[in-house]
Amino acid sequence: MTAYQVTARNFSTSSENRMHSDEVANRYGFKGALVPGVAIYGHLVKPFVDHFGPTWLSDSCAEVKLIKPTYDGDALSIDWPSPTQPASITNQDGELLALLAPMEVSPLPEDLGLTGDLKVPGRPEITWDTVCVGEVFSPRALQFSAQENTRYCAEIGDDDPIYQELIHPHYVLSLANEALMQEYQMPAWIHVKSKATHREALRVGNEVVLRCVVTDRWEKKGHQFIAIHLTFWHNDTIAVDIEHQAIFRIAE
């Protein structure tokens, strides 16, 4: 149905997450620094927005799965065969790197878990013991700025004019990463999966409150994972909610 090509960029070389540096990524067996998963998501949403227009940003649900690492300079091909099928990203070697699957918009659960115990303020190092299921992060208020929106669009080379007014999904999902890093010291971690539901389009200048709860932790193949549920409240209603998963301890 649609396809386009783009060159991957690692714009997070100075991030506290040193998986975006060659030295630390090499230590864990990768051939170089990892391109942020939120950028991959940003590339994958483009065909959906191109096809459905701005309405996709106010009434949609899609789940991104990050399957293999993307490296700076990779030649990426984004393909989307039909509106009911996932969009995919492959690299110059034909390797499947990620999928973005459309899903039905479902009602929010009555209990969002936001009345649980409030996490003690501060940034402990993230470990199995400091990840506590049911803990609620301190609410964060912010205003979406035109300058930041432009920066996030530039990071992934998306010049669609609708983002002069509407907030790019790459910006929104990046705030889920920030939510984790504001609560924990996370020196080396990998974003692996997110499900984002857009219930109302967010706009430049909107003031929102971010509320977040830890929903799970688990181990698999030597990795340790965390899951959080992040909600963006605008005028006392939830505009966007995100289920966000990451490996916080990478198997040696």
CATH secondary-structure class = Alpha Beta
What class do helices, strands and sheet pairing give? alpha+beta
Average pLDDT for all residues: 95
How would you sum up the major sheet?
A: 10 strands, antiparallel
CATH topology grouping: Thiol Ester Dehydrase, Chain A
CATH superfamily: Hotdog Thioesterase
The number of domains: 1
Order of helices and strands: EHHEEEEEHHEEEE
Q: What count of helical segments does DSSP give?
A: 4
Provide structural commentary.
The protein starts with a strand and ends with a strand. It has a 10-stranded antiparallel beta sheet with strand order 1-3-4-5-2-7-10-9-8-6, covered by helices on one side. The chain has helices at residues 22-27, 37-52, 146-155, 169-183; strands spanning 2-7, 60-66, 75-80, 87-90, 96-103, 140-143, 190-198, 207-220, 223-234, 237-249. It has 252 residues and is of the alpha+beta class. The longest helix has 16 residues, at 37-52. The mean pLDDT is 95. It is globular and about 45 Å long. α2 (37-52) packs antiparallel against α4 (169-183). β8 and β9 (223-234) form a beta hairpin.
Helices, strands, pairings?
Blueprint: E1 2-7, H1 22-27, H2 37-52, E2 60-66, E3 75-80, E4 87-90, E5 96-103, E6 140-143, H3 146-155, H4 169-183, E7 190-198, E8 207-220, E9 223-234, E10 237-249
Antiparallel strand pairs: 1-3, 2-5, 2-7, 3-4, 4-5, 6-8, 7-10, 8-9, 9-10
Helix pairs in contact: 2-4
